[in-house]
Description:
Two copies of one chain form a homodimer.
Chain A: E1 3-10, H1 17-33, E2 38-40, H2 69-81, E3 85-93, E4 96-104, E5 110-115, E6 139-143, E7 146-150, H3 159-167, E8 172-176, H4 191-205, E9 209-212, E10 215-219, E11 224-228, E12 232-234, E13 240-243, E14 250-257, H5 258-268
Helix pairs in contact in A: 1-2, 3-4
Amino acid sequence: MGMVTVAAVQMACGPGADGNIERMEHLVRAAAAQGADIVLTQELPATPYFCKDQDPAFFALAQPVAGHPLVARMADLARTLGIVLPVSIFERANTAYFNSLVVLDADGEVRALYRKSHIPDGPGYQEKFYFSPGDTGFQVVQTRHGRLGCAVCWDQWFPECARTMALKGAEILLYPTAIGSEPQDPSWDSQGHWTRVMQGHAGANLMPLVAANRIGRETGHSCDVTFYGSSFIAGPTGEIVAQAPRDAEAVITARFDLDAIARQRAAWGIFRDRRPDLYGSLLSLDGGP
Amino acid sequence: MGMVTVAAVQMACGPGADGNIERMEHLVRAAAAQGADIVLTQELPATPYFCKDQDPAFFALAQPVAGHPLVARMADLARTLGIVLPVSIFERANTAYFNSLVVLDADGEVRALYRKSHIPDGPGYQEKFYFSPGDTGFQVVQTRHGRLGCAVCWDQWFPECARTMALKGAEILLYPTAIGSEPQDPSWDSQGHWTRVMQGHAGANLMPLVAANRIGRETGHSCDVTFYGSSFIAGPTGEIVAQAPRDAEAVITARFDLDAIARQRAAWGIFRDRRPDLYGSLLSLDGGP
C-alpha cells in the first residue's frame, strides 16, 4: 500500500450530540489538514458514555445504520477530505442492539460494518446490559488507504482478535475506545496496562496500531468515570510513535511505509513458524481438551 | 499458590561445558540465596549457541533426557535448594532432535518435558537445521511453587502459546532464551521489540512472566552474534518489575502474590468474555476460512 499517514483524535463528550459531532468534525478536519489518510475517532463519540449505568432509557439512542445521521454526515466528510473514517455507533438492528463500527472509505461509501465481539461488564462499564456480542466476526477492510483491521475497545484486550485480523491481511489495526477510571477503586489506573497489551499486539503482528480514547469526567446516575485519553499510535515493533495527553483534546499522527513493514513482517518469520496444529485449545473457554 | 519469588539469571557461555555449568550453578545458588522459589536459566546454557552455523558436527551435542548429565546435576541442585528449576537441553530421542526444556520440581524430580514448538530460522539462528518442531504441545506444569507455563525462546513471540498456557491454568509464564544481534544487519536491535511482545503476553493474560537470556559475543564459522541479555520479569499488567543489563552476568528476582493476581485476573473479565466461536481462523496459516 506504500506510504500512509494515520491519525487518532480524542475529545470530551458533553450531553448534546450536536456539540459533540461539531467537535468531532473539527478534529477530523484538523487531522486531515496534517496529512492524515486514515482518521480514527473514539468509541460512541456522539454521546456521553451511557454504559456507566444500566438505564433502559438509553436504548433510545440506538439507530439503524441505514439513514444514521452521524454516519451520513461523516460519509460526506470522508468523501470531501478523501480520508478513511471508521465511525462508532450504537446500532439498532430490528430487535438487536450492537456496539458497531461503520468503516467509511475515502469515497464516502460504507465499506464494512463491524459489531464489537467482546463485550465488557463491570462497575462503570455495563455494556452487557446494552449490546449483544457481535455477530459479524472480525473485519479486515480493503480501503483506498490500506487494508485495515477494525475492532472496538474491549476487543483490544484479546490477542485472538488482533492475530485474526493480521492473518486475514490487515496492514494496520484500529481500536476506537472509551476507557478510564474504575469507579469501585479510585486507585486503579489501567492506562499503562491498556497501552502495553496493544503494544504487544502491534509487536506480535508486526504492524502499526492506532487507539483513540475519550477524555473528560462523566457523571452517571450510579458512578463517575474519568476517561484517561492517552490515545496512541504504535509502530510495528510495538514502539510508541505518538501519544496524546490524558486530559486534553488532541490530534496525533504518524506516517508508515506499509510495504517496508510487510517485508519486515515476512523476514521476521513469525507467520511462517506458527503451529495451528497446537492451537486447538484457543477454541475453548476452559483450556480443554 | 500464595506468595512466590521468581528469579532469572543470565551469563555468557564459553566453549567448555564444565565452566558454563559451574557458572550456572553459582548463579542459581545466588538466586536461591536471595529467596527464589523458581529460578529460570537461559536457553541451551551448557554450550555456545551453536545454531549460528549449520554444522552437522553439533548434532553430537544432543543427548537423551534419561541420564543427561546437566539434568542430573541440576536435579540435585533443585532438591538441595528446594527450588523449581527448568533446564534447557539439546535433546536426542532416537532419530529425532529437539530443543527441549526439562522442568525439575523442588524435589529434584522431572515434572515435565517440553519440546520447543516454534523453531526460528534466519541468519545467526539456524534452528530448523537442528531441531524438529516440538511434538509435546504447550505444557503447564504443577510444581511445588506454582503452576508454570514453560516454553522456550522463539515461542515467546506467539500470543497463541502464551494464551494456551494461560487457558490451561498457568500462573506464571517462563521463557529461557538466546537472542541477540542480527548478523546480516548490525543496525537491527530487537531487544525492545522482544521485551514489548512478552510484556503484552503478561498483560493480556494477567500473569507474571519471566524471560532469561544469555549475554556475550559468540563467534561462529559464518557469523558473530552478540546476545543482549536484558533478562526481565514482568508483572500481571505487563509492567517491568526487574530487568538485567545487556552485557553483564546478573540475578534478578521479584515476588508475587499469585492468589491476589488470580483474583485480579478474574475481576478484569478477559477470560469470561472470550469468543471461541470467532477464533477459527487461528487454526489456519493463511487466515482462512
